Amino acid sequence: MQTEIINIGDELLIGQVVNTNAAWMAEQMSLAGFPVHRISVIPDDPQQIMEALNLAGRQSDIILITGGLGPTKDDLTKDVLCRFFNTKLVFHEDTFRFIEQFFSSRGLKVTEINRKQAEVPKNCTVLPNPNGTAPGMWFEKAGEGRNRKSVFVSMPGVPFEMKALVTHEVLPRLKACFLPLNVLHHTILTQGIGESFLSDKLEDWETRLPENLHLAYLPQPGIVRLRITGQGDDEFLLRKQMEEETAKLKTLIPDYIFGEGDETLEAVVGSLLKEKGFTVTTAESCTGGYIAHLITSIPGSSAWYKGSVIAYSNEIKTKQLGVNETLLMAHGAVSEEVVKEMAVNIRGKFDSSYSIAISGIAGPDGGTEEKPVGTVWIAIAGPTGVRAHKYLFGDNRERNIRRSALQALNLLRKTILSDLSS
Amino acid sequence: MQTEIINIGDELLIGQVVNTNAAWMAEQMSLAGFPVHRISVIPDDPQQIMEALNLAGRQSDIILITGGLGPTKDDLTKDVLCRFFNTKLVFHEDTFRFIEQFFSSRGLKVTEINRKQAEVPKNCTVLPNPNGTAPGMWFEKAGEGRNRKSVFVSMPGVPFEMKALVTHEVLPRLKACFLPLNVLHHTILTQGIGESFLSDKLEDWETRLPENLHLAYLPQPGIVRLRITGQGDDEFLLRKQMEEETAKLKTLIPDYIFGEGDETLEAVVGSLLKEKGFTVTTAESCTGGYIAHLITSIPGSSAWYKGSVIAYSNEIKTKQLGVNETLLMAHGAVSEEVVKEMAVNIRGKFDSSYSIAISGIAGPDGGTEEKPVGTVWIAIAGPTGVRAHKYLFGDNRERNIRRSALQALNLLRKTILSDLSS
Lengths: 422, 422
Description:
Two copies of one chain form a homodimer. Chain A has 422 residues and is an alpha/beta fold. The first copy, chain A, has three domains: 3-177, Molybdenum Cofactor Biosythetic Enzyme, Chain A (3-Layer(aba) Sandwich); 183-260, Alpha-Beta Plaits (2-Layer Sandwich), CATH 3.30.70.2860; 265-421, Alpha-Beta Complex (Maf protein), CATH 3.90.950.20. The first copy, chain A, has 15 helices and 17 strands. Chain A has helices at 10-13, 20-31, 46-59, 74-84, 93-104, 112-116, 159-177, 195-207, 235-252, 265-276, 290-296, 314-319, 325-331, 336-350, 397-421; strands at 3-8, 36-42, 62-66, 89-91, 119-121, 125-127, 136-142, 149-155, 183-191, 213-220, 223-231, 257-260, 280-284, 305-311, 354-360, 375-382, 385-392. In chain A, the strands form four sheets. In chain A, strands 2-1-3-8-7-6 form a six-stranded mixed β-sheet, with helices on both faces. Chain A has a five-stranded mixed β-sheet with strand order 14-13-15-16-17, with helices on both faces. Chain A has a four-stranded antiparallel β-sheet with strand order 10-11-9-12. In chain A, strand 7 and strand 8 (149-155) form a beta hairpin. In chain A, helix 2 (20-31) runs parallel beside helix 7 (159-177), helix 3 (46-59) crosses helix 4 (74-84) and helix 10 packs parallel to helix 15 (397-421). The radius of gyration of chain A is 26 Å and the shape is globular.
């Protein structure tokens, strides 16, 4: 079974947009047992779209298409689809009613252009798009020179619209039409250790893995995801094999694992706080609100998060967080002493169970020989006291902010677990 | 003239790695006047590589290939290249001497595998790779069914190795072989208006554009970038045309434009604050620190940003921001009255030139009939007083946070400009 992805969009061909859609789609398809054999990026050009559809129809069973839709491009791609599938555009009532509702709920009126978005090729199945005005379209066509039909799915290129369509419409329908490969995946989430150090610790285990199991390292700034993939006809046996090997892996790196599967560190920390009825506050300097942003990105976080002071200047650290001015002058803002006071004071002032304080040099400027760019102090205060930890990250501002925030959240998680077990 | 990119690598087809190489290469080629017509991602598989080369040779003049090289994969791709170009591997002395030096300077010895990296197809021109052990390879071949030769360049997939090869070897050689197109791009950045409403306002202008100019809409949550692309033999005339049309476009949507080119809204606001010597503070509820994060993502932001209070709970709004409790009870946290008090109080307490306050219902829960999910109040306080604005965004938490933050930053920008001009 062959699967391919076609991304339509001039913006991808002049490098204005990185094709993250392709990576996400390829991962989801692969996880669902439909490995992708080719990704093609082509321009918003009718002839090139037609050629790509012709080629794909001869080679693949499943063809996922993104882009070329949306109010300003609509006619072009839909016109090609009509020619390729030998049909014509018809007005789709349900889609139009949805578009009307979509706009009226935002206090807006439907324009003529929006009305045209409700036109779809006659022989497609419309896949409702709850997040936008261009619906997904599912086509089936007898493959040229092949004895099976091919499925073509056309979706908008806006990432969150495409993602909802793939998850809720496309994958369930594909599973009903095709027999996916029997592949199991399990992901272990680690924080605070780099890929090469992990690989040193896991080398022996990895070389002894059964032939049908495979480990992949998926690094992101501050996080490495370890994905074990297994393939086999007997699902019961495969599942047992995966569980055994996952258990072995976990014993090798217990200090770095914070979760499994699709969890995020901020969601794991949120669940722990919620479950135990604890609250948290933050006093941030170098991360400038990014820890608070991660915490509040989780729906319902008002149950465990009260608020923060972002103390970017020393003036705010002393006047609003009550950091002792002499201490600040003596040790500098990026120091164990200051970060501990920040943590203790925000916890008292905002009355929370735990608090995080952070101060560091995110860069690119502000580094000294003694405290180079990437130096970060993190303190966690809680019912059993306050502890501070020093880190030296790299020289990239964006990565330093992200790594610092994740490290702080993981320290909070470990502190709570340690307090609970003592 | 047709240009295409072929990226070889299993890791790109399981979504393990986002294809940033393709975006970078496409941008460089486009800026140099060799617009890319197709990007293909294929697996480390000899048959698929051969098919891709065959197809590319029939369609394109320039074919840039990355990946499939490196010590563990080398044989596979080079073997396919030998078959495709009807040649055999030969030992390349200069490359071997470079590899020896590369390893000895790192205190390492050359292994048999590294020695094999010095073997290259006989009929290629070797492009020296100063950053790694696999050299670039330049091939020329008469196009099948075409009356021109095609150029194929094979490069390693490691980004910084590929980038140096493209910049120092590939582009200069291409410019000597082919006549690049004269293409200019200009991007206008808008906030606070959706793609379909922009397109309504620009329709007349767009239909009257000269044939060699083209407009593209590049939407992101909260932001739409408008890219004008022009093509023409006379660069002076083309530049003049682009400037005239850009000026016309700007008069049609002056209220929504915040910048041009590769700027971000947070950088534009930062530059304005810095230039005028103003400072800003924020009091955030529903955005939970995301505005502060955007502001502090800009290097040097401590010059214009002092700090914030994130008041996620009502308790923090009253106790720390001094919001009147009766007012809060009477109007609710998401109201004009409360958001104005938050803005005025944080500005006074943290002593800044301007302040942003925001309170809303990010979702998915917490909405009511009167104040549905997506309702957001934003206030800007400054030397000339305080003003509040109400918005109704959508039902997606992540997008509501992002759109609210961008709207708030743009309101701040407009308020400062209006204060300066009055």
